[in-house]
Amino acid sequence: xxxxxxxxxxSSGSAPDALPANSYLTVKFEDVSLMDAPSVRLGDSVVDVxxxxxxxxxxxxxxKCPKPSPIQVDYSVSAVLNVGWKADGNSWIRKGDYLxxxxxxxxxxxxxxxxxxxxxVIHYV
Length: 125
What we know:
The chain is mainly β. It has strands spanning 2-10, 24-31, 40-48, 59-65, 75-82, 98-99, 104-105, 114-116, 119-123. Pfam families: YscW (PF09619).
């Protein structure tokens, strides 16, 4: 098993003052090494952050999952904060939500099981 932890950081000036009920943070760990093919989800964390989030305090995540084998080159972590709703199979983002717009690479190593990766999100308007 391996664990990836980190902080979800809001881009400059975009942190919400508060979150309405049923606001969910989804953080995914994926194998993105396949060209011209969808990424493969290896682990994720989906948490109702309504009562957890406080502006100015760290919004942390943790993913525990089996360590990929064999170890590939390209793994990444991504985050989406759905504000006032929970994503489903038909919809994953709406205006007013937050998402990362850059890749957050994870370098997997033999003999290492704990990784720390912060993810910066922007406001989707």
